[in-house]
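Budget justification, computational time. The allocation requested in the original proposal was used primarily to generate structure tokens for proteins on the priority list. As evidence of use, we reproduce two of the resulting records. The first is shown immediately below.
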Amino acid sequence: MARPLRICVPGGLYHVLARGNARELIYRDDADCELFLGLLDQTHERYGWIFHAYCLMGNHYHLLVETPQPNLPRAMRQLNGLYARRFNLRHRRCGHVFQARYRAILVEKESHLLAACRYIVRNPVRANICGDPGDYRWSSYRATAGLAAPPRFLATEFVLAQLASDRKRARPRYRQFVAGDADDTLLEQVRGERLGSEGFLRESFGLEPPIAEIARSEVEPLPPDLAEIFARELSLPVLVAYRRYGYSIRQIAGHLACHYSTVSRRLRREEEAERAMRECKTWHRPPYCS
């Protein structure tokens, strides 16, 4: 039986949830949490994801992520797969780390982004781990509230801009907003893995619900040949083939008739070049929310 279609759209905002197999712990200590945050940073770099909120709980995690490219399944396969391998190696175990499929709820950004952020960072409060979200280390709350330095992958600007035109005023308003519990039952509003108004799929993405179950092979277009990519992408061909079209490093190495490690090194160089270009473009970025 075909599985329900992942609604993969450019610019989609998703509330992503994944649980440990048989509800077992996926974070046994602080080192596991640090490892996972490092992989979020890598996902941000390689797939261009924009993280608006996150919370790592003992046996599950929540992410609020925006995907400029429609690459949710590909990046999640990399994120969960790589973490599972490293978790098993570190704890000398084998077998599944995550339970079944992750859940990805497409969120209407204009109306529900703040509500989803609040729901996510209030998880430790609902679980009676702490009385205040600021007391919990492994969520995005402290960074967004100005209580800790944000990790590189976390984008706090858009969330804060919904509350005030400058950080100084936005951060206390964010803390006050999260203190309310109005969104603690937010997931009950999800319909068909979508959170938002009836018409937001149509208005934002041109999709007409209901979307029937459909095999993934029927909705994911075939990528262009590697020869075409390398002929077209003169500056960052390995990065484009790997990140945008999902080719593996081994497939790219076969096309170039070189060793796997050679392509891996070239991918890192192209990522560094892209990062440098991005920093150059944002060097003279206008002031916050001006």
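The second record produced under the same allocation is shown here.
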Amino acid sequence: MVRFGAAAPVFALALALALAACGTPPPAVTEMPKPHSVIAFDVFNTGYGAIKDKYIEAVEIRGIAIEGLKGFSTIDPALAVRVADDGIHMSHAGYEIYKRSLPTENDPAAWAGLTVDLATRARAYSREMNDASAEKLYEAVFDGALSELDVFSRYAGADEARRNRAQRDGFGGIGIRFKIEAGIVRVTTVMPETPAMSAGVKTGDRIATIDGQPVGQGEPDIIRQLQGPPESVVRVGLFRPDEERSFELTITRQHIVPPTVSARLDDDVL
């Protein structure tokens, strides 16, 4: 065991200066696997292009891409990206690890390629970047890219995008909404003309099991248990508090499009 007393800060400073003077040998570069790099390029190319084409005001790909690259620091705070006259510089823990000229064209593909290049190099120096999932990388870049636009523009990750698509286009399910309170899954809505209503599910029923298994720990898990291809069958174990009885219903899933608009007449006013 090595102990340092009052002289430790001086020693540490001398060591840091020596390392800075000598430089640190770069680790072997971990190349981003080919399929991943191709997919990442497509995602960044599509994302940058969509921001450019769909945003109401004119935006420069250069600006949003550079802000996106700065988003690497949300994964590893030791990473820093800056732009200078001679190109873009990336450093890790104060040491420059990459420099490249900037694309001159306002082309999403060129900036997508630059993003993949810098992400690949960052993976070689940063354990956090190397361990980050593709989705975490996309979130970091696009959250950064959108940060300078407005408070309403944001990136929807894969799970959120699937939920949004299901709200628009529908999904294979039984037609209920539920709420989790103190670990109890309670049915809050039974949609009209759905398999759940036909099977006799009622508001207030508690869901105890799905296909003989305990319900999931959170809303996404339970949704995955309940949803499935139309015409497939799911067994739902319920407890009905007002009758104090447990029972199981076998329900055939159908294509469900959740209602988003409701209407009623009140004194001949719609």
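A brief technical remark on that second record: Residues 58 and 71 are 22 Å apart (CA to CA).
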